[in-house]
Amino acid sequence: NDLLSVGPYRGSRSETWMHAQGCPGSHVVLKSNEPTREQKMDAAMLAARASKCAPPVVKVTVALCGDVSKPPGAKAGLVQLGG
Predict the structure, then answer these.
(1) 66-75: long-range contacts (C-beta < 8 A, 24 or more apart)?
(2) β-pairing, 80-81 with 60-64?
(3) Can you tell me the distance from the alpha carbon of 83 to that of 21, in angstroms, rounded to the nearest whole number?
(4) Backbone phi, then psi, for 39, in 5-degree steps?
(5) Hey, CA dihedral for 49, 50, 54, 60, is it positive or negative?
(6) Beta sheet of 60-64, edge-to-edge order
(7) Are strands 60-64 and 28-30 parallel, antiparallel or unpaired?
(8) CA 40 – CA 30 distance, rounded (Å)
(9) What is the pLDDT of residues 38-69, one digit of tens each?
(10) What percentage of the chain carries pLDDT values higher than 70?
(11) What is residue 25's DSSP assignment?
(12) What's the chain's average pLDDT?
């Protein structure tokens, strides 16, 4: 997750970052500056399915990659959103 969200494989500032809200799971980066609605839905479903959240409803946080950072000293996978 760190490599994708804040490391060398991080998306560009205007690409979209997603993560299931309130539970451990995979960070998803949508590698498009102008994603379609279908691409956004597919990426959000991937973030939800790759999480440990319990269905039927999984909320997904959406942010621009440029708004994702890692707090100093934070454990692996933990990020903060700004912007």
Answers:
(1) 66/12, 66/13, 66/14, 67/17, 68/5, 68/6, 68/10, 68/17, 69/6, 70/2, 70/5, 70/6
(2) unpaired
(3) 18
(4) -65, -40
(5) negative
(6) 28-30, 16-20, 60-64
(7) unpaired
(8) 8
(9) 999 999 999 999 999 987 889 999 999 999 99
(10) 99
(11) B
(12) 91
- The three-state secondary structure class of 16 is strand
C-alpha 77: how far from its chain's center? 11
Reading the block at residue 7, the tokens are 């490391």
Global pTM exceeds 0.85: yes
Q: Cis link prior to 55 (omega < 30° from 0)?
A: no
Neighbouring C-beta atoms of residue 26, cutoff 10 Å: 16
* Side chain identity, residue 18: M
Which tokens hold the place of 8? 């060398």
6 strand-pairing partners: none
